[in-house]
Amino acid sequence: MTTAYIALAGPTASGKTATAMAIAARHDVEIISVDSALVYRGMDIGTAKPSAAELSSAPHHLIDIRDPLCAYSAAEFVQDAERLMADIRARGKLPLLVGGTMLYFKALFDGLDDMPKADAGVRASIALDAAGKGWPALHAELAVVDAVTAARLKPNDSQRISRALEIFKLTGLPMSHFHLKTTPESIAARARKQGAAALISLEPLERIWLHQRIAQRFDAMLAAGFLDEVKALRARGDLNADLPSMRCVGYRQAWEYLDSHEALSLSGTAAINELRDKGVFATRQLAKRQITWLRSMPERHVVACDSPGALEQVLDLVQQQLQQHLQQQSA
C-alpha cells in the first residue's frame, strides 16, 4: 500500500496554498481542496482561490464544482474525497488534501453521523415562523427541545438554528443526540492509524502575525475588485444572502455593504473602511475557530507558520512520512 495521503490544514491566511505549491514542486501529487468556499464557481477573489498558474502547476480537485445556488455538504465532500484519493493512488500519485474547512477534515477523519437530509418543506415552515417571531424567539424554542445545541449557538445564527429545529421536527430527537453517536471508522482515519497518512497543521506562534496577514489579504481582495465580483453575483438575481455560498466570510459582509450602500458611491472612504473592518474582523473570528478545531486533533504535526523555517519543516515532514511508509512496506 502506498502512502494514503498527506493533509495540510491551517487557519485562513496561514500560507497553505504556497506551501502546497512547494510540496507539489518536489513530489508527484494531486491536490484535493478541503475548502467549502472554493467549490463555488464565480467566487474567486473573495475566496483567495489559487491562481491559474497555481492551478496548472499540479492537478486540483473539488474547486469550481458547484454553482453558488447549490449547496455542498460535508457528506458529499467525504464521498468525493474518498473516491478521489483512491483514483489518485491508482495513478501512482500522492493525494495532498489542503484547506481550512475543519468540518470537512473532521467528517473525513471521524466519519459521518446519520442525521436526516434537508427537507425543503420543513425549512420553509421554519423560515416563515422566523419571519414572524424573529430568530431569537426560535433560538429560545430550540433551547427547550435541545438545550445542548442551543447553548453553543448565537440567538441570530439563523442557518444553524434552522437546521437544529429541522432535525428535531423530522426525527423528534435533538441534534445533540446525533453528535453523541459513534460512527464507523473512515478509510482516512484508518490510514492515519496505520501510518499511511499525516496531518500537518500550520499554526502561528503569534496571533498578531496572522491578523496582519488577514488584513493585508482583505485589502488586496478589495483592490483586485472583490466588490465587483459580489455585484456580479447579485446581478444574477437568483442568489440571496441566506445561501451557504453567500454566507462565506467576506461575501456576507460585502453583500450587507451593498444592501446598505447601493445608492451611494462605492468609492466613499468611510463606507469602504467599514466594510474592510467588518470583513477583517469576521475573518479573524473564522481563523480563531479554525485554530480551536485544529487543537482538538492531537495526532497533527504542528508547524509554526510564522517561523522563518516553516516551509522547510513542512517539506521535511512530508519527506519523512514518505520514507517511513516505504520502510514499513519493505519490512
Tell me what the structure shows.
With 331 residues, the protein is α/β, with parallel strands linked by helices. 56% of the residues lie in helices and 9% in strands. It contains 15 helices and six strands. The protein has helices at 16-26, 52-57, 74-90, 102-110, 120-133, 135-145, 147-151, 158-171, 175-180, 187-193, 207-223, 226-235, 251-261, 269-295, 310-330; strands at residues 5-9, 29-34, 60-61, 94-99, 197-203, 301-304. α2 links the parallel β2 and β3. The two termini are 13 Å apart. The mean pLDDT is 89.
Please outline what is shown here.
This protein has 331 residues and is α/β, with parallel strands linked by helices.
| Helix run count | 15
Determine the structural class based on helices, strands and strand pairing: alpha/beta
| Shape estimate | globular
Beta strands, count: 6
Instruction: Summarize the main sheet.
Output: 6 strands, parallel
Rounded to the nearest angstrom, the radius of gyration is: 21 Å
CA distance, first residue to last residue: 13 Å
Mean pLDDT: 89
Model regions low in confidence, pLDDT < 50 over at least 5 residues:
none
Enumerate the strands of the largest sheet in spatial order, edge to edge or round the barrel.
3-2-4-1-5-6
Q: What percent of the residues sit in helical stretches (DSSP H or I)?
A: 55-70%
Order of helices and strands: EHEHEHEHHHHHHHEHHHHEH
Q: Note the beta-strand portion.
A: 5-15%
